[in-house]
Each structure stands twice: as structure tokens, then as C-alpha cells.
Amino acid sequence: MDGLKLHDLRCFDAVVTQGSFQAAAAALNRTHPSVFAAVARLETQLGLTLLDRGGYRVSLTDEGRHFHARARLALRELEHLQSYAGQLASGEETILRVVMGDVCPRPRILGLLSRFFADRIRTRLHLEYEAISGPVERLMDAEADLIFHRANPSDPRLERIDLCEVAFVPVVAPGFLPFQDTREITPEAMRPFTQCVIRDTARRPPAENFFVLDGAQSCSTPDHMMKKELILHGLAWGHLPEWLIEDELRDGRLISIAGRHIPGRTETVAAVRRRDRPHGPVAKALWIYLETQERAAP
């Protein structure tokens, strides 16, 4: 099998996919005799009969069918390798590392990413989830090219595109509280009840906390979907993004306790990147795309 030629493999694959030597020759812009010779040479090198030439149309032998399946994988991998080399030569990123934070309205952000990457099949999206201060930490540690999260607008190291606002609503399940007027509940009155909070995924979390009631017993979850389930089952109370619980608030499965004492909070979700780091062509294109989407938003 020494000296197996890529040209011979491509000719063999073309004969199989096109159905004849003549059609394969036309598809490859080769002559009929050269394609015939390439396949014959491949069979000789392998010691296998790959094609049955006895019928009106050539067909695969059993050995040919098994070999062709593996050959197609090898040819496809080679195409990817050539594309990868071309991408490296052009300076385009082969991977773009993006982190979604816990405040993100996932359907909207994933929709933006899906539409952008649909035309950039040579760059792989490496998407991760982080919570609380985790996204910004990943960005500052150079482990992400871009994050979708809240960010300090006064931080001179960060550049941002504000995309949307997300309201966080304090909610409980029906029957969780003994109070009649939930709109006048004070933080002191809520201390006996378990509060569900999101775990900070940062390796070096800051002292700042979000929505946490001092002195209250709490439980933690990795994301808002799990937090929502706990609250729906009456195991705790907590703040949830309004986009995630619109149906439950409408049909009464969750009750808002937002009022003047526990008002909730609105967070601005932004695309955020470092000012002090270079950005590749795909990262720059994504940034321009997000700016365009932000300007087009109602």
C-alpha cells in the first residue's frame, strides 16, 4: 500500500458518486482513460477489486463498499484540513470563544449567534455558560473573545454594545407565603423563608452579591432554569428573569412579590469585549454585526 495517491482516491470516489467512469471524468475535468487507470492502479495497490465492471453500470463490490465508506471519511477530513490551512493563512480565527452569562435572554442571543455563524462555517463557535461574575472573569483572563452579560460601563478596559434590558422579578409559588398582601412584604419578613440564588462560577468571586437577603437561609443552583423549577415546586423564593416566567406569571403558577420594599431589578445585557486586546477578522465581523442589530432594534 506504499504510495497510495490522493488523485486515485478521488477518481474512485467520483466513479462511485457519479455512477460511471465517463461521468466521473467529466466531473473531475479528466479524460476517461486517466480515471479508469487511476482506479485500476488503486485496486492493484490495495490488492482488492473495488468495482464490478460486468454490468451496464459499474457497481461496488462488497470490499469496495466498505473501503469507499472509509475513503469518503478520509477525503472529507482532508478537505477540512485544507480549509483549516487556508483559514490560518488568511488570519481568520478557527475558533471563536463566546460566553453567555446568566442574565442573557437565551432565545434572543442564540438567535443572533445562529444567524451570524450560518455564513461562517470555517469558524467554530465555542460557546460556554458562566454566572454572576464568571463571564467577566473569563474575558479578563483571556479565556473568552466576547461575552454576553452585564458589565461595569465605567470600566475603561471593556467595550460594550448594549443589546437589551432584562427585568428580574421576585417570585414565589402559590401558597409559599402566609401573607395576604404580597406587595407590602419587607425583606425582614422574608428572612425565615429559603431564598434560591445563582452560584457564582468565578474562580475569584468578588464580595458583591445580587439579590441576596442578608441573614436568610439560602440554596443555590447553577442556572435560572433550575432555580425556576425549585421555586415552582415551593422549595424557595427568588428573583427570575421576566422573559423566562411570562407564562407562569400569566397563569398563576408563579406570583410576583415585587413592591416598594422588594422592588426587583433591571439588568442591561451587553456584548462585551476587551479594548486592550487584538481581535481577529471573524470577531470584528461579529462585533459589527451586533452593532447593526442593536441599531435596527425597535
Description:
- There is one protein chain.
- It is built from ten helices and eleven strands.
- With 298 residues, it is of the alpha/beta class.
- The protein folds into three domains: 6-90, Winged helix-like DNA-binding domain superfamily/Winged helix DNA-binding domain (Arc Repressor Mutant, subunit A); 95-164 and 269-296, D-Maltodextrin-Binding Protein, domain 2 (3-Layer(aba) Sandwich), CATH 3.40.190.10; 166-265, D-Maltodextrin-Binding Protein, domain 2, CATH 3.40.190.
- The protein starts with 5 loop residues before the first helix and ends with a helix.
- Helix 1 (6-18) crosses helix 2 (21-28).
- Strands 3, 4, 5, 6, 9, 10 and 11 form a seven-stranded mixed beta sheet that branches.
- The longest helix is centred in the first third of the chain and has 29 residues, at 62-90.
- Helix content is 40%, strand content 20%.
- The model has no long low-confidence stretch (mean pLDDT 89).
CATH top level class name of the largest domain: Alpha Beta
Approximately how much beta-strand content do the residues carry?
Answer: 15-25%
- Going by helix content, strand content and strand pairing, the class is alpha/beta
Radius of gyration: 29 Å
Looking at the overall shape, the CATH architecture of the largest domain is 3-Layer(aba) Sandwich
Unreliable runs, pLDDT <50, ≥5 residues? none
The helicity comes to: 25-40%
Q: Quote the distance from N terminus to C terminus.
A: 64 Å
* DSSP summary, beta strand count: 11
Mean pLDDT: 89
Q: Could you say which overall geometry the principal axes of the C-alpha atoms support?
A: elongated
Helix-strand string: HHHEEHEHEHEEHEEHEHEEH
Would you tell me which CATH topology of the largest domain applies? D-Maltodextrin-Binding Protein, domain 2
Tally of helical segments? 10
Q: Please state the oligomeric state of the protein chains shown.
A: single chain
Biggest sheet overview:
7 strands, mixed
Protein name: LysR family transcriptional regulator
Pfam families: HTH_1, LysR_substrate
Organism: Mesorhizobium dulcispinae
Family: Belongs to the LysR transcriptional regulatory family.
